[in-house]
């Protein structure tokens, strides 16, 4: 019933929630960035909602979806079997190894390496071990990458630290989540995110601004967005 209601709400032309606004903007960004043969990466692939959009916009590209939860990984493998999308059972991070992972059974989208603040206090959590690796170790550094989406419930800094080679060489546009109540549980501050992107000549903005008038945040403005919880989905671009 819950999934059915979500589909009904999505069918309306009006966005009722901030997440719906971000979903629409994500679709618009992907359509603007991608050519038919663009290569893309979806970190935190979940059920493949964003990967489906990528496929529609770049049907001839080579795509990679990363999903650490075993059951969701298996579902994605079946869903994209025989396509030009490779599903990889890893939690991307800044180093290769194994780590404990909080699988939120009652709400899988909240799953992550750190147990964080959830909207409901009675979420059902199972501790599992997952493999980690750097994106730079998995994706061929010579492969052009047009776009990366990162939605990893607070671990975006660790993902980016493991992808500096791709940032430097391929210069993809990056859609990423960064919000209070998730990123801070990893010890990540907006200043750390800003400085990492700045090191590689990237600017940060909201998707709305990037799609419209343009412009980008100063470090202080980006910190204010985070601290006042104005927005939690952003775009980074060279």
Short description:
36% of the residues lie in helices and 20% in strands.
Tell me what the structure shows:
36% of the residues lie in helices and 20% in strands. The chain is an alpha/beta fold and 238 residues long. It has a single domain (17-94, 139-237), classed as Rossmann fold, CATH 3.40.50.150. The strands form two sheets. The chain has a seven-stranded mixed beta sheet with strand order 3-2-1-7-8-10-9, sandwiched between helices. Helix 8 (190-199) runs antiparallel to helix 10 (219-227). The relative contact order is 0.13. Mean pLDDT is 93; it is low at 1-9.
Low-confidence stretches: 1-9
- The CATH class assignment is Alpha Beta
What percent of residues adopt helix (DSSP H or I)? 25-40%
**What's the gyration radius in Å?**
17 Å
List the helices and strands and how they pair.
Elements: H1 2-10, H2 18-33, E1 40-43, H3 49-57, E2 63-66, H4 70-79, E3 85-88, E4 91-92, E5 97-104, E6 125-133, H5 135-138, E7 147-150, H6 156-161, H7 164-170, E8 173-177, H8 190-199, E9 203-205, H9 207-211, H10 219-227, E10 233-237
Helix pairs in contact: 2-3, 8-10
Feature tags:
Rossmann fold; 10 strands; 7-stranded mixed beta sheet; alpha/beta; disordered N terminus; 3-stranded mixed beta sheet; 238 residues; single chain
């Amino acid at each position: 019933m819950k999934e059915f209601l979500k589909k009904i709400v999505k069918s309306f032309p009006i966005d009722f929630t901030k997440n719906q606004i971000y979903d629409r903007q994500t679709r618009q960004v992907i359509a603007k960035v991608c050519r038919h043969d663009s290569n893309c990466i979806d970190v935190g692939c979940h059920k493949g909602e964003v990967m489906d959009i990528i496929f529609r916009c770049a049907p001839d590209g080579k795509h990679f979806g990363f999903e650490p939860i075993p059951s969701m990984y298996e579902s994605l493998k079946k869903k994209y079997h025989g396509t030009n999308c490779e599903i990889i059972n890893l939690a991307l991070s800044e180093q290769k190894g194994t780590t404990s992972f909080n699988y939120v059974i009652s709400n899988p989208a909240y799953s992550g390496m750190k147990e964080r603040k959830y909207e409901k206090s009675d979420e059902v959590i199972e501790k599992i071990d997952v493999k980690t690796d750097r994106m730079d170790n998995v994706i061929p550094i010579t492969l052009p990458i047009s776009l990366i989406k990162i939605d990893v419930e607070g671990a975006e800094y660790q993902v980016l630290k493991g992808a500096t080679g791709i940032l430097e060489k391929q210069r993809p546009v990056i859609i990423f989540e960064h919000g209070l109540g998730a990123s801070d549980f990893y010890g990540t501050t907006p200043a750390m995110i800003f400085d990492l992107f700045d090191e590689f000549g990237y600017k940060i903005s909201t998707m709305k601004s990037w799609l419209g008038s343009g412009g980008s945040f100063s470090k202080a403005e980006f910190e204010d967005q985070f601290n006042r919880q104005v927005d939690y989905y952003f775009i980074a671009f060279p």
